[in-house]
Sequence to fold (153 residues):
Amino acid sequence: MSISLIPIAAFASSMVFLGWECWKFYLGLVSRGWLPVKCVVHRAWIEEDTSSNPDGADSVSYSAKVQYTYRIGPDTYTSTRLTYQPSSSLSFRRAMKLLTGLHPGQESTAFYNPKNKNQAVLIRSVSLRNSIPLLVASFLCALTWYWSFIKRH
Fold:
């Protein structure tokens, strides 16, 4: 009995995707316990992401971006992590909402991981939008498992 590598590769890649989404969800949850620290916002901006649909029409979404520095003791850290919530493929309104109150030169509060001081966020939480990639990844895993190992045998 020969096993095709394509189904195995499809299943493995969907498992990696699921693992990554679970990791982001986990970090969003544990970031609620991270420690506050004063930070300075250097940049806060929205990027426009354009992609073409199969029918040739352009689809536009937006990403909320930020860059800030914070000090812990004598060390200064720079981060671009706004949140573990989805911050790309957003509506313009949602991207603006994530960046509300963040202006260059402004002092704000970041939350850093006391076990890894390089990890910090400005918004510490997860949202319902975190569950969508988890559901997609789970569906892909189940589908590739069924197609690769159940249906073919």
